Each structure stands twice: as C-alpha cells, then as structure tokens.
Amino acid sequence: MRVLVTGGGGFLGSHLVERLERDGHDVVAARRRDYDLTRQDEAARLFDASDPELVFHLAAEVGGIGANRANPGRYWYANLIMGANVLELCRARTTGKLVIVGTVCAYPKHTPVPFREDDLWDGYPEETNAPYGVAKKALLVGAQSYREQYGTDAVYLLPANLYGPVDAEDEVVLWGDGSPTREFLYVEDCVGGLVLAAERYDEPEPVNLGTSEEIAIRDLAELVAELTGYDGRIVWDESMPNGQPRRRLDTTRAAELFGFEARTSLRDGLARTIAWYRSRDRARAAIR
Predict the structure, then answer these.
(1) How large a percentage of the chain has pLDDT more than 70?
(2) I want to staple 258 with a disulfide (CB 3.0 to 4.6 A). Which of 55, 124, 200, 224 is the partner?
C-alpha cells in the first residue's frame, strides 16, 4: 500500500516507518522541515505528493511538563490544526483509512485506575498539559463526526508513555517527589498495535494501547540506575510539579477488538534501550 506517516521522522514515527517498509509498503515519512501541517496548503501539498491509501497521523508538538507550561497556546493550536487538516484531507481525497494517535494526557487528572476509554470525558486533564491533551482529544470528536457524516474510516488510539531506542537523552532532570506513577509502552509494541489497528479495527470508539502496569517515577529512576550501573546520587526537585498523580490503562478493548498485547517488560525494554544508547556512543567514539 501507499502509506503516509506524519511525524515520520520522530521517535514513534521512525520505528513505524521501519516496520512498514519491512512489510513491503511504499511509505512517505513526512517531516516538519518539509511540510508545515498547521498550514492547509502545505498539508495539501503533502497529500498531492504521497497520494496515500493509508495514513498514520503521528505528528505533534509536544514536550515534558516544562515545555507544556511554556507553550500552552502553541501546543493547543498546532496539535488541533494539524489533526484537523489531516482529517479533512483524508475526507476530501477519500483516503482508505486514517489512524490517529492520541495521548494519555487527554484523560482527566483524577481518572480512576486503570484508565478505561469510557472515562475519557469524565473530567478535565491535568493542568500542566491540558491544552495539549484537549487539542488531541478534539481529534477524537472530529474522527467520530467525520465517520458519522462522511463515512471516513478514522480510528483513534491512546498509547501509554513510550520509550525505547532512539529516545535516550544525555541528561535527565527529575522533577517533583517521584511519587506519581506512569505506564510505559515499548515503542516496538506500540508500532505493532498501530499496525493491528490499521488492519483489523474499523470502529469509532477510542482504544488504549499499553501494558496495564504502572511504576512510580522514583522506582523507575532506581531501575534505570540499576540497569546502567549508576551509583551516584539521585536528587528530586520538589519545588517542581509532579504532574498527573497516577496513570495506568485498561487495555481490555485493544485485546478484544484487534488482538493487541504488549510483549516487552519494562526491565527488558529498558535494557534494550540502554544497549542501543551505549552502542551509539561506541560508534561515535570510533568515528572520533
């Protein structure tokens, strides 16, 4: 198939593009430097160039708590407009299917654990990332509305926090007190979920992608320290916000509707990520 991946140069996008090409698809990986999807004419130029049968919309402007606090207006506008432009072009060009990747930040701040898709509208998101979360949640409404009025085959997925090779950073700043919990989904497992949804799922309801397991940020930091052999001091800056208190998804719907199941444990996924990071450093050192 001719497949378009917006955000194809990003973390999740690069892994998805690699998988799709390995499966034999003709893939266009759209990057921000080539197409500004907040502009309708630029989005249309992308669709003209790629003429896709299947679209994965992964493009987003996003960051951590600090970036969200610094850019609430930009994150709301850019994510809303990019998604709206892609959805409208899929309708206008009668694209075969659109898979929209939402965000766990769309869930209400105090969602009962585990997060169920039916809880999505039962409150306001955590304040520090609410503009981003609300913008991405609006795309669910758009997808459902376009399906109802125009028959657009658009599905909406909600992955847990992602991690894996290509995502490691040189420095990590630990904000808050380490008590909040998060659920982490290995990037290759997420890619598998996206592909399964594209192949097997054709309904309007949103679907969680995750592991259904949560870990406190403090415990996560200690696990990373163990796996990397770091024996220094970990300092928590409690003057900074914690973010949402807990996150854990109910993944029953994904298993029942298109057979998704995460296969990589957090320990194994982190070990693979650390191994990738170290191999990259060795390669750089060899070049120097």
Answers:
(1) 98
(2) 200
Catalytic annotation on 107?
Answer: no
For residue range 67-123, list pLDDT tens digits in order.
999 999 999 999 999 999 999 999 999 999 999 999 999 999 999 999 999 999 999
DSSP assignment string, 237-263: BTTS---SS---B--HHHHHHH-----
If DSSP codes are grouped into helix, strand and coil, which group holds residue 51?
Answer: coil
Task: Tell me what pLDDT residue 170 has.
Answer: 42
CA distance 206 to 192: 17
Nearest-angstrom CA–CA distance, 132 and 85: 17
Helix residue ranges, H only, 151-229: 187-200, 217-228
Report d(CA 100, CA 194) in Å as an integer. Answer: 9
Strands, E, within 11-58: which ranges?
A: 26-30, 54-57
pTM for the full predicted model: 0.89
The closest alpha carbon to 248, from 205, 215, 207, belongs to 215
Measured CA to CA, the distance from residue 272 to residue 274 in angstroms comes to 5
- Work out the mean pLDDT of the chain and round it to a whole number: 95
Going by their DSSP bridges, the two strands 181-182 and 215-216 should be labelled as antiparallel
To 10 degrees, the CA torsion angle through 169, 214, 263, 280? Answer: 10
Q: Which of 35, 132, 146, 201 does the annotation list as catalytic?
A: 132
Joined tokens for residue 119:
């809880």
Whether the Cβ atoms of residue 221 and residue 178 lie closer than 8 Å to each other: yes
pLDDT digit string, tens, across residues 199-230: 999 999 999 999 999 999 999 999 999 999 88
Three-class secondary structure of residue 84 per DSSP: helix
Tokens linked to 125: 């998101």
